[in-house]
Amino acid sequence: MRNSLLAIVAAGLVGCVGGIDMPTNGTPPTPPTDGVGGGGTGPAAAEARTLFENTVYPIVSAKCIGCHSSAGAVGNVTAFVAPAKADAYVTAVGYQALVGDWTATGAPILLKITAAAGHQGQTYSPADKSAITAWLAKELESRAGGSPTTPPTGGESPADATIRLTKEWSGCMKLANFTTANMKAWGNMQAGNSACKTCHNAGEYGNIADNVDNPFFTVISTNKYYMAQYFSADLSGGVANAKMIINTRSFTGVGSALAPHIEHPRFNLTGSTGLAALQKFYDLTVAAKTAGTCGPPTLTN
User: Fold this and answer.
1) 299 inside domain
2) C-alpha–C-alpha distance, residues 132 and 230, integer Å
3) Domain presence at residue 109
4) Digit-coded pLDDT (tens) for 191-239
5) Phi first, then psi: what are they for 203, rounded to 5°?
6) By C-alpha distance, which of 162, 177, 126 is closest to 244?
7) How many whole angstroms separate alpha carbon 117 and alpha carbon 23?
8) Is the pLDDT score of 32 beyond 50?
9) Mind listing the pLDDT tens digit for each residue in 168-195?
10) Residue range of the domain that includes 239
11) Residues 168/294, Cβ–Cβ less than 8 Å
12) What is the pTM assigned to this prediction?
């Protein structure tokens, strides 16, 4: 089990929180309406969706749909490409393991294929890279309340703030606080008829949840893709007020079987032992940051 972890971490794009697992009964609920379906706000959010549909979707539909079509068979855990353009945006941005932290250095949609070894023989042209990078920048702009991507002199861009906060946060997370918060409760949480650890104890499908402290803690404190499932940068108050928050959006979407996770076993995040543990771990990590007792960043990617 542990031997597969490094391979899974390197894979990057797979996603159970971010993927499709086992069938579930009933009709999935309708996704919440936020104007564009991606989490941003204001005119920049609509612009981000338009950029994806017009410049990024043609790239992924040409290069990725053969293996990652959302119309594929059950068990296609990386079904992030919808055959229909109208469904493409909500499907893609619903995969945390595809968009990562939305930065050009932390989004697997860009990094997976641009890695030295490539991916399944696929490569990006310079134009492809530019299109995806521009879309990611617009997404961050929308999450920063629509503020300009280019910061004023001496300021940070949304991407720079996200990278900085994520690095700082990694150094503030401590194993003792992880244990005190009982984060291993995530491993025993039930989704349908299975405990989360059944599918995710070794980091499978882009998420890790186990009923032992390590390597659970080590993975989310050293790998930014796995950290992003639990914590994300909040830019809604503008870059100057950016901060780390609990990423409830990702877990809520999966637990409620919202697109694109319509076949994931259901679970209720609200009132769960997992959320209670995550809130305590978050509070303890904030306290460490406030007290100035954080160590250096621990991220390895």
Assistant:
1) no
2) 24
3) yes
4) 888 899 998 888 887 789 999 999 999 999 999 989 988 998 888 888 8
5) 85, 15
6) 162
7) 34
8) no
9) 999 999 999 999 999 999 999 988 888 9
10) 2-291
11) yes
12) 0.75
Residue 186 amino acid letter: W
Predicted local confidence at residue 70, as pLDDT: 78
Position 298 in a domain? no
Q: 231, 282 in Cβ contact below 8 A?
A: yes
| Strand 231-234, strand 194-195: pairing | unpaired
pLDDT digits (tens, 9 = 90+) for 104-127: 888 888 887 876 666 777 888 899
Instruction: Count the residues in the chain.
Output: 301
- Supply φ then ψ for residue 134, to 5 degrees: -65, -40
> Secondary structure of 109-156 in the HEC alphabet?
HHHHHHCCCCECCECCCHHHHHHHHHHHHHHHHHHCCCCCCCCCCCCC
CA end-to-end span of the chain, whole Å? Answer: 22
Share of the chain above pLDDT 90, in %: 36
Do 206 and 18 meet the contact criterion of CB atoms below 8 Å apart? yes
Q: In the prediction, which pLDDT does 4 show?
A: 40
Token pair listed for 34: 């936020």
Domain total in the chain:
1
Mean pLDDT of 3-29: 35
Please give the C-alpha separations between residue 38 and each of 88, 89, 109, 210, 243, in angstroms, as whole numbers. Answer: 11, 8, 15, 29, 19
Separation of CA 203 from chain center: 13
Could you give the count of Cα atoms lying within 13 Å of 77 in the half-sphere of its Cβ?
18
Of the pLDDT bands very low, low, confident and very high (cuts 50, 70, 90), residue 39 is: low
In a domain, 296, yes or no: no
185: how many CB neighbours lie within 10 A of its CB? 19
For residue 266, what is the DSSP state? P
Per-residue CA distances from 275 to 89, 193, 245, 272 (Å): 28, 19, 13, 5
- What whole-number distance in Å separates Cα of residue 101 and Cα of residue 132? 14
